[in-house]
Amino acid sequence: MKSTLSSLALMSLALFPALGAAQAKAFNPLDSFARSIASPSYVEGEVLVKLKAGVRLPARGVQALFPGMDVVLEEQILTAAMRTVGEQTGVLLLRTTRPVPEMIELLKADPRVEVAEPNFIVETQQANDPHYLNGNLWGVYGRETTPQNIYGVGAAQAWNNGFTGQGNVIVGVIDEGILATHEDLQGQVWVNPFEPVDGIDNDGNGFVDDNLGWDFYNNDRTTYDDTGDNHGTHVAGTIGAKGNNGIGVAGVSWGVRMIPVKFLQNSGSTANAIKSFDYLTDLKTRHGLNIVASNNSWGGGGFSQTLKDAITRCEQVNILTVCAAGNNGRNTDTQPFYPSCYDNVSIVSVASITSTGSRSSFSNYGAVTVDIGAPGSGVWSTVPGTGNTSAYASYNGTSMAAPHVTGVLALIAATDPGYRGLKLKGALLRRGTPTTTLSGITQTGDRTNGALR
Ligand SMILES: [Ca+2]
Ligand SMILES: [Ca+2]
Ligand SMILES: [Ca+2]
Ligand SMILES: [Ca+2]
After folding, report:
1. Which of 80, 84, 92, 190 could bridge to 257 as Cys pair (CB 3.0-4.6 Å)?
2. Which CATH code is given to the segment(s) 2-36+124-447?
3. Using one digit for the tens of pLDDT, what is the confidence trace for 150-194?
4. CA 223 to ligand 1 centroid distance, Å
5. Cα(18)–Cα(16) distance, integer angstroms
6. Which fold has domain 41-119?
7. Where in the chain is the domain with CATH 3.40.50.200?
8. Any idea which residues carry the catalytic annotation?
9. Rounded to the nearest whole angstrom, what is the distance from the C-alpha of residue 155 to the centroid of ligand 4?
10. Distance 219 CA to ligand 3 centre (A)
11. Which ligand neighbours the alpha carbon of 195 most closely?
12. What is d(CA 92, CA 204) in angstroms, rounded to the nearest whole number?
């Protein structure tokens, strides 16, 4: 045990310096604040456009639609999920050489345009605090567990009572990729039973050989690429690493299966986030899969109507959208953070708490816009080690709080097929434990409680 812990610590220390350089700037709260409020970052030269109902894209392309405007069609995003709800044109990703704000103003002035907005850049919500290494899984402990921590979600108590999440429940992990061959994740990642790897799109969803989800960042079938997929692998381990196998960590739900939907490599874009949500909506519709929620440990950029629309399509098929509240340490009632602050009823916005029950200093909060708290400081989970080996590390962030909630949702969903959609969200919120430090700064004033009995 001792050697395991020290090797774990070494692995994390080895990983963090590499992370630090790339992420220090991205996660600086002031920096994030400036970009989210004053000038959200977006992909230069790209604009997302939704045409009004009934306006079609002419066969001759966008130049025929917008003659004289400096735009070319980079991509027409018309997903299966959009077609299902009667969309005919979808979302147009346009390329321009003009400044994005200027082009948006021009497009908005066109009466045929319903939405014109930037293709925002969003980021993972893991805090940049590499020194918080403590080696214990306090986030899953409860009042009656050994070791005990009353501020954990109490999953260990649920396991003791026989609730380990068995029950064919699936969640989507919209994030970086997941190392599915990690020793503590093997068998926990969903495999598409309708999609043999044979060079053919057997299930007709538009993605060839998407047997382990899809990579929208690189637009390919490999949902794990390299050790840069550490954030997604960490999030997955918190939701559903294999429990009681004598190895590594234990996720909140041991029985859940996770669909990797990769659209981030440290950062990602609105356009690819839309495709990620729609991918899950369509999988559920197409195959009747028991997808109950997606985990979204990322955010940034400004309000996007087209992204909100994709979340609404998830909502319409009873997929909850669990969102990290964000790591800016601010009140998102007055300074919103997306996607957690969209007003969709299917969103569960999660703040981070520490092992002593206070709000993590980096965590956003909001009496209206944040629902509940969950462990997000000093969270140990699975990560890829050098050479794509199985390693473990402690991370901090609302990125780590959201997957505790997603895991608890999976635990609850496994107990009763009636708990889906808003009923599932209601069951989660009803179970919460009143917490002084969250009172008045979250909608429930509660921390997450998954101590099922
Ligand atoms: Ca397919
Ligand atoms: Ca195939
Ligand atoms: Ca890939
Ligand atoms: Ca384990």
Report:
1. 190
2. 3.40.50.200
3. 999 999 889 888 899 988 999 999 999 999 999 999 999 999 999
4. 14
5. 5
6. Alpha-Beta Plaits (3.30.70)
7. 2-36+124-447
8. 175, 231, 399
9. 14
10. 7
11. 2
12. 23
